[in-house]
Design brief:
The protein is 8% helix and 34% strand. The protein has helices spanning 55-58, 155-158, 232-238, 250-255, and strands at residues 24-28, 40-45, 49-51, 60-62, 70-74, 77-81, 91-95, 100-102, 113-117, 125-133, 143-148, 163-166, 172-178, 182-189, 202-205, 210-211, 219-225. Strands 10, 11, 12, 13, 14, 15, 16 and 17 form an eight-stranded mixed beta sheet that branches.
């Protein structure tokens, strides 16, 4: 006989939390494309994605362009529109940092990098090292390492860097896809100009030019502050005190 009755319906628990980052399933043009001539890159992922609000803080394009690309997300797609003219025979990399994440759980696709070349090969030069603060010996991840081709002493003051990269939490840095050329290496804060245009900025420089491809994995730099910004409280305490007018006495009032 059949047993009659109503079963208690238990809603599914939903399973374990999704902890996996989005997976790239296609790129148009394809990653590591040679003889690249386009202006738009379309990246398709296996789930719905969105861009972090700090996209501009995360995005690093090498070589450093005059105009940063526009990056947009919609459903499972991230589209990059290049706004700057491309140099011939040059390898470009677009490092998204931690800016692409899935919509549901916010899992980041960490340090995803898309690479292409406007020439017939990808350059593979690397440059790595570590930066510490000279005063304390500890790392500061708000600093960046910049590379200048120009040997002039004022290049780091006047010119945007050819390449720059961020430090990790331990102060380590690494450049990839560099041409086999000679660069001058500097350390600066990661601000808008990426130039040494203020003597109160943290600063460091490598005392010899570096030829990429020859012993470029052990650079050590110590950042220092040539002049510390003036303390506003100290300025107030050293400013001459305003002369207060003495209250008039009764006798003074009579003389008036």
């Amino acid at each position: 006989t059949l047993m009659e009755g109503c079963a208690n319906i238990i809603p599914p628990s939903g399973g374990p939390r999704d902890s996996l980052p989005p997976l790239l399933i296609s790129a148009t043009p394809k990653d590591s494309m040679l003889n690249f001539t386009g202006k738009k890159i379309v990246l398709v992922f296996d789930e719905f994605v969105e861009l972090d609000q700090k996209l501009q803080d995360n995005l690093v394009v090498s070589p450093n362009p005059d105009i940063m690309p526009m990056v947009e997300s919609k459903l499972k797609t991230v589209t990059v529109t290049l706004k700057d003219s491309l140099r011939t025979g040059t390898t470009y990399s677009i490092n998204f940092g931690n800016s692409i994440k899935d919509v549901n759980e916010g899992n980041f696709y960490k340090n995803f990098t898309y690479v292409f070349s406007t020439g017939d090969e990808l350059t593979t030069g690397t440059l790595a090292g570590r930066v510490l603060l000279a005063e304390t010996g500890i790392p500061d991840s708000t600093l960046i390492v910049v590379l200048q081709r120009n040997a002039n002493d004022t290049a780091v003051v006047k010119n945007k860097p050819d390449y720059y990269t961020k430090l990790d939490g331990s102060g380590h840095f690494q450049f990839k896809y560099l041409p086999n050329e000679t660069f001058h290496v500097f350390v600066l804060p990661n601000d808008y100009t990426k130039k040494y245009d203020d003597s109160t900025k943290m600063f460091s420089f490598y005392d010899v030019p570096v030829n990429v491809g020859a012993n470029t994995d052990s650079i050590r730099l110590f950042a220092y502050q040539q002049y510390k910004p003036a303390d506003k409280n100290q300025i107030r305490s050293t400013a001459p005190a305003e002369k207060k007018e003495e209250p008039k006495t009764g006798a003074d009032k009579k003389e008036d």
